[in-house]
Specification:
- By secondary structure, the chain is mostly beta strands.
- The protein has one domain.
- The chain is built from two helices and ten strands, in the order βαβββαββββββ.
- Strands 1, 2, 3, 4, 7, 8, 9 and 10 form an eight-stranded antiparallel beta sheet that branches.
- A hairpin with a 5-residue loop joins β5 and β6.
- The radius of gyration is 21 Å and the shape is globular.
- It starts with 16 loop residues before the first strand and ends with a strand.
Length: 210
Amino acid sequence: MAYTRGTSSNIIVGAAAMFVADTTLTANTVTGFDASESFKETLSEDGDYTNIGYTMNGLELQFQPDFGEVQVDQVLDVAKLYKQGMQVNLATAFAEATLENLLLALAFNDNQISGNSAVSAGRTLNLSAGEIGECPVERGIVAVGPGTGDCADSAYVERVYVAYRALSIENVTVSAKRDEPSMFEVSFRLLPEDTSGSYGKIIDRTWGGS
């Protein structure tokens, strides 16, 4: 194969649309693809997913392997590294400061929102401290963003990010400032699902078009 400097069509630029599932996911429970439409449309039509709307600063997946060291007398540096742990995080910022998005950012149960915004009493998010033994709320996350490919076909190419089990574990700040929008910066810790030990998957797909 002849040398080339690179392939510009493999450069990905653009944000992803993010959806949060009502429950955790597995490889067998993720909604299937429709060959005729974008996965964003498929998830929007599925009542088991919530579109969190606008985000700020995109989506960031961080993989943090943990390696142990073996030191021997004859080498001043370590002689061997071995993998002893793994941690995966997904970070974004919810730019739509709705109570529903705050509930997702805080990993609260759905029943902690009550009321109706159309009446004078309004809607309420109960900021409960929880109780001893309370199970943390895990949810699946699916994000759909631009994929690699030629510009002319870019409308039909997308990259899908799937996280089977996600749990919000970092501090969440709620603000009302004069010169900044109110948004929820959230970091999800991803956990492997029981059957396969997989955190999720990343899929490059082409839909419709040619």
